[in-house]
TrEMBL record:
Pfam families on file: Na_H_Exchanger
GO biological process: proton transmembrane transport
GO cellular component: plasma membrane
Keywords for this protein: Antiport, Cell membrane, Ion transport, Membrane, Transmembrane, Transmembrane helix, Transport
TM ranges: 12-30, 42-65, 71-90, 102-123, 129-147, 159-182, 188-213, 225-258, 290-310, 317-337, 383-402
Top-level taxon of the source organism: Bacteria
Protein name per its UniProtKB record: Cation/H+ exchanger transmembrane domain-containing protein
InterPro entries: Cation/H_exchanger_TM, Na+/solute_symporter_sf
PANTHER family, A to Z: NA(+)/H(+) ANTIPORTER 1, NA(+)_H(+) ANTIPORTER 2-RELATED
GO molecular function, one term: antiporter activity
Membrane topology per record: Multi-pass membrane protein
Organism for this UniProt entry: Thermoanaerobaculum aquaticum
Compartments, as annotated in UniProt: Cell membrane
Length: 411
């Protein structure tokens, strides 16, 4: 039996199941070989998708174009939720200022550099600005799981995790404002202020849901599948917040942080902590296992889909040149920002830590998703996904090509 999309033959059922199984095995092997070979699993999966799609034409690009953005959003949600569960509130409060400054300075600088490169290569203003905003944020999807494995001091690791999470939010908000402006929405300044208010609303709503939800879990603690139910709440929270025009990404991150730090938050709010200790560890550890496995599954398919749908074989020399110039400016600019922070004492660190954080500026999931969204909502941006993916690949090769600091075995 074949699935069909119009006149397009997609794949037989047995071939589809064999393909899914093969991709999961490949992802597992790539994850296991990462420490030894230093080849990012993301690149292996994208290369596999590129071979299956554009090269050998075993998978249909048109059908996958419909699915990839949805998988991207789901993978993004899962990674942010898992990142929130990993955050320790006292460290977040103590390091939030440093993380926010690093994220904001880095985002603005990167967006400015990338947009300038686009204009220098003769791109229209809308294309250049959106290119800058799409590739500016470092990828929290890469940073959040990687930071604990780099051997950085706890405080510095918290700073880079916060930077990755906030950079994703800046990217989503920035692209939303730009698309609203270029599609005739106007009043971008007022919209930006509205986005800031929406971000605050997202955090407050997630905080409220995160404090109420454990009470429901305690009432249902004898039931099965509470992990799935909690994940369903995270999905619903994202959907509701996005429908209201706020930041689903920030809401899910704050929801995960609230669940993992309920006792500390209740203490800050002078509320009763009764029953928290006995449930907190069980809920957090169980959610970690479930979300981690689900993230692995969804992320695997998304990056394969990305390799299928991004037509890198159609890129011309100017696209590659623009991507490489942009990446070089990112590296130089981040070095300057970190150097200033270190000299002024805003972010003190050892020399080895400086080198690690300097190169820890990967682009990945959020950039790919934003590129697809921008292309879908504003026509004439066919170059955007391809150039963005070239930057993603180049950045990942730089980040994971470093051999100066061995990775820990724990994920």
């Amino acid at each position: 039996m074949d699935y069909r999309l119009g006149e397009l033959r997609v794949v037989t059922v047995h071939a589809f199941l064999a393909l899914l199984g093969g991709l999961l095995v490949l992802a597992f092997v790539a994850e296991g070989a990462f420490n030894r070979l230093r080849i990012p699993p993301v690149l292996v999966l994208m290369a596999c998708g590129f071979l299956l799609g554009p090269v050998f034409k075993l998978l249909p690009v048109a059908a996958f174009l419909e699915v990839a953005p949805h998988f991207g959003a789901l993978a993004f949600l899962l990674i942010l939720f898992e990142g929130g569960l990993d955050l320790h509130l006292p460290e977040v409060i103590h390091r939030f200022s440093s993380g926010a400054r690093l994220a904001s300075f880095g985002f603005v600088m990167s967006a400015f550099f990338a947009a300038g490169v686009g204009l220098a290569f003769g791109w229209p203003l809308a294309s250049a600005v959106l290119f800058g905003l799409v590739v500016a944020p470092i990828s929290g999807a890469v940073v959040l799981p990687l930071a604990p494995r780099l051997g950085l001091p706890q405080g510095l690791a918290t700073v880079v995790v916060l930077e990755g999470a906030l950079a994703d939010v800046f990217g989503v908000l920035g692209v939303s404002v730009a698309l609203q402006f270029f599609t005739g929405g106007g009043l971008a300044g007022l919209l930006a202020l509205g986005s800031l208010a929406a971000a605050v609303f997202s955090v407050l709503l997630a905080l409220g849901v995160g404090l109420v939800w454990p009470h429901a879990l305690r009432a249902l603690r004898e039931r099965s599948y509470l992990d799935v139910l909690t994940f369903g709440v995270a999905l619903a929270l994202w959907g509701v917040v996005e429908t209201l025009g706020a930041s689903g990404a920030l809401a899910v991150l704050a929801f995960g942080l609230t669940l993992a730090n309920e006792r500390e938050i209740l203490g800050l709010l002078k509320l009763s902590e009764e029953g928290v200790l006995e449930l907190e560890a069980d809920v957090t550890s169980s959610l970690h296992r479930f979300i981690g496995q689900l993230t692995f599954l969804v992320r695997t398919f998304f990056f394969v889909f990305l390799g299928v749908v991004v037509q890198l074989h159609k890129a011309n020399w100017a696209w590659f040149a623009a991507a490489l110039v942009t990446m070089a400016l990112f590296v130089l600019g981040r070095g300057g920002i970190l150097g200033r922070f270190a000299r002024t004492g805003a972010l003190p660190m050892e020399k080895a830590d400086f080198r690690t954080v300097w190169m820890l500026q990967p682009r990945g999931l959020v950039n790919a998703v934003l590129a697809m969204q921008a292309t879908h909502k504003l026509g004439g941006l066919d170059l955007l996904p391809a150039v963005s993916i070239i930057i993603v690949v180049s950045n990942l090769l730089v980040v994971f090509g470093l051999r100066g600091r061995p990775l820990a075995n724990s994920a």
